[in-house]
Every structure is written in structure tokens, then in C-alpha cells.
Amino acid sequence: KENPVKGKGDDIEPPFSPPLPPEGGEETPVPIQTKKEEDPANDYKGQFAMYYARILFFAFLTDSRVKSLQEIINHIKGNADNLRIASNLSLEIIILDLFQKHINPFILSELDYKIHNINSLANDSAISPIERASNAMKKFSRLSDSEIVTPEFVTDKIINGLPANAIDKNTMLLDIASKQGEFVYAVYKKFGKEAANNFYSIPTSKIAY
Description:
Blueprint lengths: L39 H22 L7 H9 L2 H9 L4 H10 L2 H18 L6 H11 L12 H9 L12 E6 L3 H10 L1 H4 L2 E5 L6
Parallel strand pairs: 1-2
């Protein structure tokens, strides 16, 4: 059995140089959804990066064990839950098949490696579910050009600013612009599972859903 390795194989960057981060800032993650660029060449790169990130997002979300793009294709075809995830990520079998058949073999090999590693980390029983949720939010922190996940330190600061008795198991909560359930995650950490079960989220897009 191969153990997942944190590091190079679990990042979501496509195999070409991304834009440089602002001075003194952190690198901006590749968005899972992008708006069309005016320059066709830039649009091509952006669309490729978007699809690449969505494939890896699928590898993280699925309950199936997958090691390659071909296995993702097979599991989408044969599993209703995987088909639902793929549909919400706008991953189409016909496009995935084209990736599999025509992508540069070296790029495909790197993609397969990342798929395997991210999927293994997502299903690693040695990591608690709460830590896995945190890892997902850090890796996929930008869903689109207009959908950026609220950082964990911000949600923690907001929720930790509430009085200790402000929320209990009967309190109903609503996030009207949820990206990854980042606020319910913060509530879960401070107030526990019972309080989090009464937290409702309205996603901002199909991908956020």
C-alpha cells in the first residue's frame, strides 16, 4: 500500500507557471472556475488550468478510491454520487476523455500522480475528518474569479468573538453566501457537532454546492 505524501503531489497548480503572487503576499490558487479572457491564448491556458483544478477537486471530494484520470472517468460513469459531483463541477465525460487521449503524456503522468495523492490524503484514516476539512479549504480556497473562500483565521475570529453561550444545540444559523461551509466549520470547532447540525448554508454556485 502506498502512503500519501504531503507536498509536491498534493498541490493543485497545473504544470505551467502561474502568475506571480503580489509582493509580500501568498501565491493565489488557481480558480476552479474562470471567466473568459479576451486573448484566446490566455483563455486557452485559463480554461486548461480551470479544468485541471476541477479534476483534482473531484479527486478530493469523491468517496471512491481513484489513482488516475482514467479511473475518475470510469467511476463517474458507474456511480450516481460521482456523477452528481462531476455535474456540479461541470466536468463532462467527453472532455475528460479528450484529456485522457490527447494530453501530453508527461502532463498526464503528473496529473495522475496528483489525483492519486490528493485522493489518498482525502481518505487517509490517520487524519481526522475535521483536519481533512481544513486541508480542503486551504487547497481549494478559490472557487472562481468572484468566489473566494473566507480564510479560516477570519471565520475563527468572527465565531470566537461571539459570547460562549450565544449558540447552543437549538440555535438555528444561516450562511447566505456559502463557498465551502467555512463558517459552519468554525462553529463546529467552537460549539460542537450538535450546534453545527443546525447550521444551514446557501451556496453561491453549483461548484460551491
